[in-house]
Amino acid sequence: MNTKVRTAVIPAAGLGTRFLPATKAQAKEMLTVVDRPSIQWVIEEAVAAGIDDILIVTSPSKKGVEDHFDRNAELEHLLEAKGKYDELAEVRRITDLATFHFTRQGAPLGLGHSVGTAERHVGDRPFAVLLPDELMPDGGATLRRMIDVTESTGESCISLFEVDGPDISNYGVAGFSERDGDLVTIDRLVEKPPYEEAPSNLKVTGRYVFTPEIFAKLAITEPGRGGEIQLTDAMAMLIGDPGMRGLVIKEAGYDAGQKLDWLRANIELSLDDPEVGADVAEMLSGIVRARGLG
Ligand code: UTP
Hints:
Order of helices and strands: EEEHEHHHEHHEEHEEEEHHEEHH
Oligomer: single chain
Structural class: alpha/beta
CATH topology of the largest domain: Spore Coat Polysaccharide Biosynthesis Protein SpsA, Chain A
Bound molecules: uridine 5'-triphosphate
């Protein structure tokens, strides 16, 4: 087995029902955060972590995702003719981020099924999975550490985040047998457990580095909740065979697939943006003053 992680799989074939009506005719992954689609933020993160090969799993209604990472000769020609060289460089940069490949899921049979469609492309190598609506604006640091864990241990590594109180029962939850700083050895994975039965307060978040054994596990995963092939069910079979680590992260990032957190991502990331940050801060304090919210 080649142990270097070079490929990231981006599952983007879901229906995006939590964000209707915005997602009726456009992909959830293409919703803009500040100045680019959320999926571009996530791919830039993967590239910063050392990934140079991207496989995006799409569906027939998501052609915009494929077009976004493909060359657009007509647009490039027009920008050049108008002397808009900064915009031209930005448009070309998207295509040059990595080598892009696309595959179709066929039907939205669940996240596990979506990841399973990557087997032919990935083969016998470890690989990363990044959910394209979860933003982790840390310059790829978390994913890089997860890749290092998998490359040095030969075990899969997933990102985990501490959740206080009963809210934990809304998530996939990881129990662990050992903890060394921010690294845990996972011994249980449960999807949406009742609060009293949760094995810990660590929820599974949208970054994963898998060894190729995940494909054999997905192949024998029965449809679970909602008739979907659940990634968590296949991951649970990796525990002890060959093993599963967890990295406990300090910042949750943003779930841009739901309205409130998408808004929060736009506000916070625009405040960090060198071009508009100062103006956004002024605009926000103006709104707070005008509405008496302060
Ligand atoms: P989500 O459950 O967040 O996405 O799946 P969804 O199903 O599109 O959204 P809602 O819940 O209806 O609002 C996490 C990721 O997995 C992909 C989605 O595109 C999303 O990026 N996914 C989900 C697939 O690729 N295929 C599926 O069958 C389901």
